[in-house]
Amino acid sequence: MSELTINVDDYLSESDKRRIVTDAFSAAAAAHAQKDFERIISNSAYYLVGEIVDQHFDGNMVATLKDKAISVINNLSSSTVFSPPNAWDRAASKGFEHMQSALDELKPMIHQRVHDLIARYNSEELRSLIEEQIGDAIIKKLTS
Length: 144
Prior knowledge:
flat
């Protein structure tokens, strides 16, 4: 591989080099300040909200917060309470984890119940249901 050596002093004056370094430093400092600015504003907002809540927090506020928490809990949907982990790195909810744990503990009972239901099916009735489902599936496939 060939190597090329360039002496920047041949092309740039001292003032040009100072200007280039100053411009690069200013750009880097501005980018860093912008990033810190957003963080500082966000932290300040949380701090101010915390101070306002502390100033207005009296004995009644505990009861109010408890009532509000109960109201929120009572209005939660099953998709909120029992949400599984997802592709966006969201962890499973505690409700989902407890439900999975309960299902694991109840697997033998669930299997037994399914077995009992299948055992009670009338074989002719079951055969008729299966034939009807297969027939419907074939007709849908042929007509689509």
